[in-house]
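Can anyone check this?
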Amino acid sequence: TPRRTVRVVLFTNEENGGKGGAGYRDAHTAEIKDHVMLLESDGGIFDPEGFGYTGPAPSKATVTAIASLLTSIGAHKVRDGGGGADIGPTGQAGNVPMFSHLAESNYFQIHHTPADTVERITPKQAADNAAAIAVMAYVIADLPWRLGSEK
């Protein structure tokens, strides 16, 4: 069990004005101060590459060290610019570090087309993406310090 709670949220209504993300922010305004990170996965489930990160600069070294645990599955890259339509409202309201799960970039070749079917997902890709997200979330939730308070 990690030191902090890991909350999984399944958002809806992104493509109808972002109402899901705004609704979450509004429903949890009093709790935003307790959020230590937000992670959005909205780029498909192809081969994982790593994470985009928006947050305090000193924390990027921590995030990069955590991502290095994912080298064997290719999910070790950390680039600037994490976030997304669903987590953006909460992240901005509380200045909470935001992550984007990154997967290889052929997402828009099939997204919202007749080819956008579950058969496109391989069990290995599903497992590798789940592992990448789980490792990043768990390790940050279990840090002895709050992400962003690195000395």
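Reply from J.R.: I decoded it. The chain has five helices and four strands.
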